[in-house]
Amino acid sequence: MIEKNYQPADIEARMSVVWEDSLAFKAGRPDRRDAVPFTIVIPPPNVTGSLHMGHALNNTLQDILCRFERMRGRDVLWQPGTDHAGIATQMVVERQLMERQQPSRREMGREKFLERVWQWKAESGDTIINQLKRLGASCDWSRERFTMDEGLSKAVIKVFVELHRDGLIYKDKRLVNWDTKLLTAISDLEVQQTEVKGHLWYLRYPIEGKTFNPEDPTSFIVVATTRPETMLGDTGVAVHPEDERYQKLVGKSIVLPLVGRKVQIVADDYSDPEKGSGAVKVTPAHDFNDFEVGNRHGLRRISVLDKEGCLDLLDNEDYLRDLPEGASQFAEEFHKVDRFVARKRIVERLESFGFVERIEPHTHMVPHGDRSGSVIEPYLTDQWYVDAKTLAKPAIAAVRSGETSFVPKNWEKTYFEWMENIQPWCISRQLWWGHQIPAWYGPDGKVFVAETEEEAVSHALGYYVEQEVITVEQGREMALDRNKREGFITRDEDVLDTWFSSALWPFSTLGWPEDAPEVQRYYPTNALVTGFDIIFFWVARMMMMGLHFMKEVPFSTIYIHALVRDEKGAKMSKSKGNVIDPLSLIDEYGADALRFTLAAMAAQGRDIKLATSRVEGYRNFATKLWNASRFAEMNHCAVPEGFEPAKAKETLNRWIAHESAHTTREVTEAIEAYRFNDAAGAIYRFVWNVYCDWYVELAKPVLLGPDSPAKDETRAMVAWARDEILKLLHPFMPFITEELWEVTAKRDGLLALAPWPLKPSEPTPEQLAMLAAAAGPTDPLISPVLIMPIFDHADFTDPKAEAEIGWVIDLVTQIRSVRAEMNIPPATLTALVLSGASAETKERAPRWTDVIKRMARLSDISFADRAPDGAVQLLVRGEVAALPLKGVIDVAAERTRLDKEIGKADADIKRAESKLANEKFVANAAEEVVEEEREKREAALARKAKLLEALERLKQAS
To answer: What are the BP-aspect GO terms (predicted)?
Structure first.
């Protein structure tokens, strides 16, 4: 029996146990042995993470697809797992050591430290997995993977070795994002651009061969910079080739202030004549753009900073080369000075010699590490790289050909722009936690890349024996005695970027590189659901790796969802204090309400403005369904054995079957097209408006009346329609629907495994051939007997029933609308005149007179050839229905009220349009503030339109 009150927390806890105990979400269930697979891999959350609103949206949408396809009869694998999150995890453990006043990472050594990290992972690493279960994620939890599992680690090593063998992984000295606090290279995704109020220094660089005079502009060239401290590494000055001011100087040199190094003036399009002085200093070792300019003009790269962001000048051969006599004294004075302290001192020194023309306030974006908070330094260092340009070519072609498609399609342009201009991918990180790079170095620095240390040692010893660095006997001894080769060959201490291992996620989680049957059955996957911010970091790299190693795209569809913002449209951030915690919402309103809110607002290409009131509203929606199901149960509504809704005789019951079929098609097509908001909207309207507000209300006289065949049929149909609702709603609100199914449907089996309401058609020969080809001749897991259900949308319809019940609903709805517009009190009953009614209306009206009078607050319903004078006329399905309101309302007073409301709407429209017409406001106001004004204008325009319509109706009554 259904409890009186809907309590989400109780239901969620109970249903989670039911699903887990029944292995409902397990891929490869015996009953799905011959079903076509449907695979989604979860974007693996960081093992350090906690559920945030982006996770909630992402996993809700994935779960909708998985539950939908599971009900359509497919063998669903939703592959779960977590990412080891190199920097984040290492920081968590290091912070823990510091807080407990225990030895630091370096004090305890690599081996002991990694033991502590694994210990932390065992104790705290499952937090986000448990939170995903609270959300209702129907993953196959028995297959949970971790990016540093033994099998996945084996895949990582194999991929590295093979790419290196093919020349697609190599070591190079290039600029990287360097975190001076964490002392490691980091990815672009881990860099946050922060607006900083700083300065723009205009520096005078003396032209070679001229006597420098601050008063003589011909003796120097002015460069503008935000980083005077890196001038010590300048190896060029760039001007635009078409900038007439500097054309005569191109090819000449300047003498670098304080340093004395001669620096060439080059012509390059990178310099913008409109910015600063039009001339820029080029420091190839300390700026990504300068690095490219330097490459184009063959400029030296001189790194003047060390790993900790301090000046590194002494013993720096690159810096000291070609310096005039006496410059080394300056190097000694500034050696190991922090970059920001050095900035101040260098500016002071430049000012004292007259090299500073002026200093201007300057607000600009400065990169910061998202975890350390320190300013990121472009740093020239030896790192391992992947030749992403070569790997990107097949990945670009796959999207162009349609093998993989983006939804919404506009993200393809973003993908192409980035992939076609892709840079080498830096994959090494100066950390201890992660996949250690499988490379070993000999005494001369030669690199040996291998899958195992034994293999690397074998290659190295063979090489050095051949080179006569060691004797054959020494080689044999080293091969047998580890101690004897200690220090002769050493492993690279760096680890791989976490995106490297997660790039293999679609196939490494299935058991590759072993010849696992799951790889053949579940790869390629069907859909990837992810955010736009990791298209480059994860999606593109999975495409590259999947095509290179599996020779197939890793997924056929990439659905890109938008951001979840606060209710005003602002991006959520801790600093703004507007972060909404999904777990708090689940605690208060239930997981189903949160899930439905996110789905209902997930319009393609549009960010979600999340208000707590919306979640509360959908909690009320769940309560509405609960109460309707309880009403059905209390009225003994149940589906008898063998009941066929298409054979119902009562018009009302045939109408609900018609509406149910229409909604089922609508929901199915919307989910298939990734229009989650349309699917949610369709089921919401059907449950609240069609089933609860109309069908149950119209059925009440029969249900509460004497026993009869009509009552029996209506009881069965109320229960049948409720069951159809539970099926359609299950992917969105799994907990409440599974609970109601268990209590009311009284059938064997879980709703999660129940068939979707539309019946599948027979597969075509082409589809069968496609499945057979995918299965392969020896695959024991796949049989081409069953194909993915292809749905026949030509399901039950009854236009006659829809015309009759639709007329009743439209008539009552319009009368209610007029009563509300005219401020007619509920207790005041009005008459209704059906003017010039058709034969159909005259025939159906008597059947529904009592219902219409009750629901529309009418005193009488009559027929007439024409509408009476002073009546408000309604057009209902092409026919006139008139409400005589003369004497019922004060027409003059009502007109005054409406005019006043129209005036208010006009004022709101004018106020909003005035702001939106102000270019300064649109340019400077926050995006969410501008959008709010647009929404105010649209709301006021809609309000005015309704008021004008009411005013026009009022004229009929005067």
So the answer is: valyl-tRNA aminoacylation
Q: Which residues of the chain have pLDDT under 70?
A: 745-747, 759-795, 890, 894, 956-958
DSSP 297-316: HT------B-TTSBB--TT-
Q: How many CB atoms lie within 10 A of CB 161?
A: 19
CB atoms within 10 A of CB 92: 21
Which run of H or E residues covers position 953? helix 927-957
Residues contacting 351, CB < 8 A, separation 6+: none
Q: Model confidence over 596-622: pLDDT tens digits?
A: 999 999 999 889 999 999 999 999 999
Query: How far from 637 is each of 628, 634, 654, CA to CA, in Å?
Result: 11, 8, 17
Any residues with CB less than 8 A from the CB of 833 and at least 6 apart, and which?
A: 862, 863, 864, 867, 868, 871, 881, 882, 883, 884
CB of 599 closer than 8 Å to CB of 680: yes
Which residue type is seen at 295?
N
Residue among 900, 919, 913, 917 nearest 941 (CA): 913
Q: What token pair was written down for 203?
A: 């520096």
Residue 157, classed as helix, strand or coil, is: helix
The residue with tokens 């079929």 is 661
Question: Given this model, what pLDDT does residue 632 score?
Answer: 95
Name the H helices within 470-611.
472-480, 482-485, 498-502, 505-508, 517-522, 540-550, 582-589, 591-600
Residue 733: CB atoms within 10 Å: 28
Give the pLDDT confidence score for residue 766 in this predicted structure: 53
Q: In sequence order, what are the residues at sequence separation of 6 or more whose Cβ sits closer than 8 angstroms to the Cβ of residue 713?
A: 648, 649, 650, 653
Q: Residue 5: its pLDDT value, please?
A: 93
List, as residue ranges, the binding site for ATP.
574
Within 13 Å, how many C-alpha atoms sit on residue 19's CB side?
26
CA distance 636 to 766: 48
Helix (H, G, I), strand (E, B) or coil at 230: helix
Which parts are annotated binding residues? 574
Q: Is 593 helix (H, G, I), strand (E, B) or coil?
A: helix
Closest to 546 in 3D by CA, of 571, 572, 528, 565 = 528
Q: DSSP labels for 479-491? A: HH-HHHHTTTSEE
**667 touches 683 (CB < 8 A):** yes
Which pLDDT value is given to residue 65? 98
* Number of neighbours of residue 936 by Cβ within 10 angstroms: 17
CA-to-CA dists, residue 628 to 62, 632, 689, 693, 719, angstroms: 29, 6, 12, 10, 10
